[in-house]
Amino acid sequence: AALTVRFLTRRFIGEYGDMEFIYSHNLTVDGREILLHIWDVPNSQQAEDGSSEEKRIQWADSFVLVYSICDRASFNILPLKVQFIKAAKEGQSQEKVPIVIVGNKRDLHHQREVSSEEGRLLALSLDCGFYEVSAAE
Predict the structure, then answer these.
(1) What pLDDT shows up at residue 82?
(2) Where is 22: in which H helix or E strand?
(3) What pLDDT, on a 0 to 100 scale, did the predictor assign at position 73?
(4) Angle, alpha carbons 86-100-76 (nearest 5°)
(5) Which residue has the higher pLDDT, 34 or 121?
(6) Distance, CA of 78 to chain centre
(7) Counting beta carbons within 10 angstroms of the beta carbon of residue 102, is it exposed (0 to 12), middle (13 to 18) or buried (19 or more)?
(8) Whole-angstrom Cα distance, residue 31 to residue 19?
(9) Is 28 helix (H, G, I), strand (E, B) or coil?
(10) Is the pLDDT of residue 107 over 70?
């Protein structure tokens, strides 16, 4: 979610490897100040045991799942991730958990492996929001 951090903080976060970070940011929405905590988990860390991932899911109130439009494998794991999140969060409260799927690297359209339409259709089928963006722009 370096993309989300860049959007909120206006800082560019370069390649930082496979480390996870928690970023905090104050934001004013409708005159109210809101403190956001963003737990940025690189995909390689999400592949670890389910209990670690479950802790992260219980910690969060909403989710932004980012894939690269140039990497089909990062797109193909999204249905499993969304199902895991919904099972962990919605099973307890019956409330819909906010999940947004974001296709990143829109500026690299010449290397595209996943079409915008595929992203939109997947998000629709999983009842998630959808955006396609470029962290570099």
Answers:
(1) 92
(2) strand 21-29
(3) 94
(4) 75
(5) 121
(6) 10
(7) buried
(8) 34
(9) strand
(10) yes
pTM of the shown model: 0.74
Give the Cα separation of 133 and 102 in Å (integer): 7
Task: Tell me the residue range of the domain where 126 lies.
Answer: 1-132
CB of 35 closer than 8 Å to CB of 71:
no
Dihedral angle computed from the Cα positions of residues 6, 103, 16 and 36, in that order, rounded to the nearest 10 degrees: 40
* CATH number reported for the structural domain that contains residue 60 in this entry: 3.40.50.300
User: What would the two tokens of residue 1 be?
Assistant: 């979610």
Spatial distance between the Cα atoms of 101 and 117, rounded to a whole number of angstroms: 13
DSSP state of 61: S
The answer to the question of residue 137 being in a domain is no
Per the structure, the count of domains in the chain is 1
Residue 70 CA from chain centroid, whole number: 16
Q: What is the SS3 string spanning 67-114? A: EECCCHHHHHCHHHHHHHHHHHHHHHHCCCCCEEEEEECHHHHHHCCC
Q: What is the CA 7 to chain-centroid distance, rounded?
A: 13
